[in-house]
Write a structure and sequence with these properties.
It is a single chain. The chain has 261 residues and is an alpha+beta fold. The chain has one domain (15-244): Pleckstrin-homology domain (PH domain)/Phosphotyrosine-binding domain (PTB) (PH-domain like), CATH 2.30.29. The protein contains 3 helices and 13 strands. Strand 10 and strand 11 form a beta hairpin.
Length: 261
């Protein structure tokens, strides 16, 4: 993918940070402390945290099928806050991490952003985020992968360079865990947008999401607003539920990827 003429390239929700105290830089990534933990913004509240498998899919161009770009070789630490989802893989050097990436040289070069640091005793840390301004929709899916039935949360965003869909995927064998994370992210995202500049045409749907998420085909998988909003009706094998989020923006805050490790 071409740059913008100023040395800046898209890095698609991920940075590889080497060293002791390093900042991922730009608006795309959270800052990282010396022990590999994300540095949250003042007043930012954590809603949930845990360990999940994380990967990323992307269209080669707008309208094309999604292709797997990378997947962490080990589970990542994930935080859901009232402003964003943050993920960190602090054991990124475990095994041969390069095997986790699709052999797509041009895209790999624009996806990985290596940042120099004075000390390298902590090795490499993979870090990324999805800010609540970006998702156009969330998908809750049940899929069979490598003979295992897994539940996935797909977070769909739009690449500003070519309007292609970029999908961060978090997954686990526990359907209840991923379903609950989906519910919390839909409601938190809706509440975030309602407190800012929610589009008039989408405000009604966002208000509904903030109370009890509703799918695009008008289902309430977590219960209706009048019932128990935490009761999940369950996913059948191969089933997918989509929750549209009005008022999304394209991924913004590109970091400069021209710095050397």
């Amino acid at each position: 993918m071409p740059g913008d003429g100023r040395g800046s390239r898209p890095v698609n929700l991920l940075s590889i940070v080497s060293g002791h105290t390093a900042s991922a830089g730009g608006g795309l990534f959270p800052d990282i402390s010396e022990d590999g933990q994300p540095i949250f913004e003042p007043g930012e509240a954590t809603i949930w945290s845990g360990r999940l498998r994380v990967g990323l899919l992307r269209q080669r161009a707008d309208g094309r099928p999604l292709t797997r770009i990378w997947e962490f070789p080990v589970p990542a630490e994930v935080w859901l806050t009232d402003r964003r989802l943050v993920f960190v893989c602090r054991k990124f050097t475990a095994g041969d991490w390069k095997t986790a990436w699709l052999d797509w040289t041009d895209f790999l070069a624009s996806t990985v952003n290596s940042i120099s640091a004075e000390m390298k005793r902590h090795g490499r840390v993979a870090v990324g985020q999805v800010r609540y301004e970006w998702p156009v929709s969330l998908q809750l899916m049940s899929r069979r992968v490598n003979m295992r039935q897994l539940t996935l949360l797909g977070i769909n965003c739009v690449d500003p360079w070519d309007d292609a869909i970029v999908r961060l995927v978090l997954y686990d064998k526990s359907q209840e865990l991923i379903a609950d994370l989906t519910r919390m992210m839909v409601t938190a995202n809706a509440a975030y947008r309602l407190c800012r500049s929610a589009p008039a045409a989408g405000a009604m749907l966002l208000r509904q999401h903030a109370q009890s998420p509703v799918t695009d085909d008008q289902r309430h998988p977590f219960g209706s607003a009048a019932g128990d909003p935490h009761r999940f009706t369950g996913l059948r094998p191969g089933e997918s539920m989509t929750f549209s989020l009005p008022g999304a923006t394209k991924i913004s805050g590109w970091a400069t990827a021209s710095r050397s490790a």
